[in-house]
Every structure is written in C-alpha cells, then in structure tokens.
Amino acid sequence: MKNYGDVVALDNVSLKIRSGEILTVIGPNGAGKTTLLRIMAFIERPTRGEMFFGGEKVDEENRDRFRLRSTLVFQRTALFNADVYNNVSYGLKIRGFPKHEIDEKVGEVLELVKLDGYEGRLVKKLSGGEQQRVSLARALALDTDLLLLDEPTANLDPRSASIIEDTISRVNRDYGTTIVVATHNMFQAKTISGILALLLGGRLVEVGSPDEIFERASKELLSFARVENLFSGDASIVDDGNSVIDIGGGVKIEAASALSGRVSVYVRPEDIILSKRSISSSARNTFTGSIVEVSDLGSIVKLRIDAGREFVVQITKRSFVEMGLNLSSKVYLTFKASSVRTV
Amino acid sequence: MSLEILEGFRKAIELILSGDPTVVDITLRSISVSGMATLLSALWGLPTGIIVGLSDFKGKPFLKGFFNALLGIPTVTLGLILYLFFSRTGPLGFFHLLYSPIAIMLGEAVLVSPIMVSLVINAVESVDPEIRDLARTLGASEAQASLAVLKESMGSVSLAFTASFNRAIAELGVALMLGGNIRGVTRVLTTTVALETTRGELVLGIALSIILLLIVLAVSVTANILRGRRIWASR
Q1: What is the pLDDT of residues B136-179, one digit of tens each?
Q2: Nearest Cβ partner of B138 from A64, A76, A90?
Q3: Domain of residue B66, residue span
Q4: pTM exceeding 0.80
Q5: Where residue B207 sits, what CATH number does that domain have?
Q6: Pairing state of beta strands A146-150 and A70-73?
Q7: How many folded domains does chain B comprise?
Q8: Chain B residue with minimal CA distance to A149?
Q9: Which residue, A66, A306, B35, B178, is the most exposed by fewest CB within 10 angstroms?
C-alpha cells in the first residue's frame, strides 16, 4: 500500500516473483507502475505492507543491504553530467571495486549494449537511444539479483529498442537475473515477459502468462490497451454454428462461435498469415489488401493493411525481406475462424 | 575636471605597476579577509543550502523567503548590529575583536551567508530530482547520494562562492564599522577608497578602485571557466 497524502498510488498490491523470472507490469500512465518499481528498488517505502527478498523479510536494518542487490533503470533517462565511463562505473566505485575490475566490467557491459568504445564520450551528447543504453549498461555492471526497468524503450528508435530488448532477454537467460519491466507497450509485454501483471488505478487486476492475459483480453485490459484488429459489427449465426460478423468496408469475418447482434471481435496480429498469393487452407477467412504502413520493430515488422478495413499483421523482418514487400504491395490475409476472439 | 580624472587614472596605473607597498598590503588584506569570510560562510552555508535544497518540509518556502530577504540587508545596519555585539560592553566584547581583521572577516561572513545559502539552495534544487534516486539505486548511501547531487550542481554552487566573495570584497559598511580603517591593520580596499576620496586624494582612490574591479572581474571570469570544466573526474 502506498499513499501520497490523500492519493492512493498502490492499493493492496501483492506480488510474488520467482528468482530468474521476467515479470512485466503493464498498465496505463498513472497506474502506479513506477511507484511499484521504486518500492521494489528500495528507494521508496510503502506506506503499509511487507516486503520479502530471497525469502528474508525487509526491515529498516537490512533495507540498505537489499538495495545493493537490486537496481532500477529510470523511465526518463537520468544520467550524471559526465562521460560514459564515469556513469557506468559509478555503482562499482561506490562498492569499492579495484580499478582494473571496473575497467574490465565497464568494457564488458558497453559491449553488451553495443556501445563499445564509447567510454570517453560525454553522455549529454549522445542520442536518446544511446543514453538509455548507457543507463542499462550502468545497471548491468552491478550484476544485481534484481533488475528493474521502467519503460525501458519508451520513445526510442527501433534499433536501440531492439538492442535493449535483446539485452534484457540475454541477461535473464545467461545470468539468471530476475527482471521486472514496467511498460504500456503491449507488444513488448508479449515478447519479453514470462509472467505478466496488469496494474490499473494502483490495483493489481490480473496476473498470469502473456498468453493467458491476452487470450482472455478482459475488459480491464482493453480499457487501456490498444488491441490491434478490434472491430465491431453485426453478427449472425450461420448454418454450421459459426457466425459471420459484418465489420463494414465490405469485410465479413467468420468466427467459430455462435454470435448474434452487435458484437466486438479481435484478431491477434500474429494469428494472421500473410501471403503474396491466395493459399488453399482450412482457414475460413481470406481477404486481399494493400500495405499502407510499415513499422520496423527490430526483428519484427508490423504492417498495416487496407482490406476494406485496416488490419495489423506482424511478420519477421526476414520474411518481409524474402517476400519482397513494400508499401502498396498487394497481399492476402488469411486466418482461422477460431482465431477470431470476442470481447 | 576631466583632465584631472585622466591624470588621476594615469597616476593610478603607475602606482599599481610600481608595486607600491601600501597598495599591495591593502589589496592582499582585502583578498585574504574576504576570501576567509567566504570560506567561513561556506562552512555553514553549504551544508545548510544542501539540506534545505534536498529536503521537503512545511516551512521551506518561509525559510527560503527569509534567506532571500536577508540578501538585501544594508551593510551599515549589519555593521552597526555587529558593532554593538563586538563592542566592549556588548555580549561578545570579551573577545576583544573590534577593530581587527577577524572582526571584519566575521562580519562579512555573516553578510554573505544569505547569498551562499540562497544560491546553494537554488543550485541543488535545479539538479534533476532523479539524480539522488539514481545514486541511491546504484548503491550510494544518503551522504554519497547528496555528494552526487552537489557534484551535479557544482557549476551553480561556484556562482554562490563567486557572488559571496564579490559581495564581501566590495562592501564598505561592515569593514568600516568593525575594522575602523586602521592603517596597516584593518585598512582594506573599500575603506581606503572612501577615506582617500573624502581627503581629496583621488589617485590612490582610483588605483584601488581599479584593483577592486580587476579582482571582481578576475574571480568571475575564473569561476566561469571552471564552471565549464568536467566536475566528475575522468578516467
């Protein structure tokens, strides 16, 4: 529980993270994500409640000891007005590491975030993406048990975002670091997290695997999350028990459930198969359209396709290149009736 | 009259360049007394400014307003108050400090303390509030985190030192009332300029005024150059 005067920032939040896990906390701005992370980083005290770290109860006497075992990368890049070396080495110097070890560690983490050779550069002269990578490197240099990241890729260029996401996954995989990421980026939440917690108005409303949470697509999730391919239309039941929903623009979607009346449905971008020719399959939905927008998300490319109504499709960058796609390319969208989910 | 002024300037420059012992003695005394006064005010002003700047408490705006109000205190009024304290019958009379360089130094330290405190508070408050939390999440103790904030604000803190020194060396009231302008003992640049001008000895007055301006200018320029330097040690 955390209050700021009369404002309740966190209300009865109870969360358990296993060692080596990646937990993503999603929620809109003002949901309490940053407050939760600051409490977990031991730089903010909860108004009420208990905290345990590695099974040990946190109290006033051991708080500083636990603070050394966790570190937070801030949302708004906070940097010392110094060069990259002095920023990255700060925590190591505080911990009293000898200089040769500090030099070695700084070089190692800068290589990890693809900033090797940047030691002497002034951080204020780096780009936003590079600055955030310096922040991440500075946290990684400490080898803490718990790494907390507050909106680590917000407003970053795709390359920096991709490097940061890759680094997070790699550090978790190679060093077993427990990671907590706060984000409102649904795509990121789906791709990097092992477990996902939905925070709304300071309350934890859902905790589960990304698949469970997105599969369920609860009203709470949809209340803030921009779910792609969400359509409303009039549904009518057809002979075989399936439904056909007219979503406008001449597009009728077939769903594998008996629906009637006004309904909202959505199709996950990763459930749509993209092809340059019509494919023969069991899938009940096939539409033709042209690419109207291409977004590079690192290893993934997000495409917006106008097929009467706009659909968003995700494919790998490799597929995008191999298929020779570009803006205005004519493509086929195919998805199964069972992939159509109702809200 | 204008010819007289020009002649005064010529002779003044000659006096400075000749290394006149009186001019050197007065100048060195001024620099040392004002420098010590600045350092003394920093002894309590720096921690006070840091603590107030980093804290958030109910009476903070009032306290900041109080220090800001003291910025404009007339030096003769402060000189008079301190004179009463240091005079033989005053509460601090048993120290026998009146008409000594120490009395001027203490008086000037009191005079510039509000400048030191106010500017340090502003300097600390102008630092990104996340810097302190950043230092703490990287393992710094409260003291180390405060030091990190001070390092980040060093450019503005140097302004507090510069402004305090310049105010101390350029003030007249405190030096005159607590020092008494005794030749070879408490005579400083401002008191000598005032005395020599009233006596019609413009040459020495102009020479010392030029020196005073040069000192103020040199201190400000040096502080500006230092402000641009990196505060965090390089590798």
Answers
A1: 999 999 899 999 998 999 888 999 999 999 999 999 999 999 99
A2: A90
A3: 2-234
A4: no
A5: 1.10.3720.10
A6: parallel
A7: 1
A8: B137
A9: A306
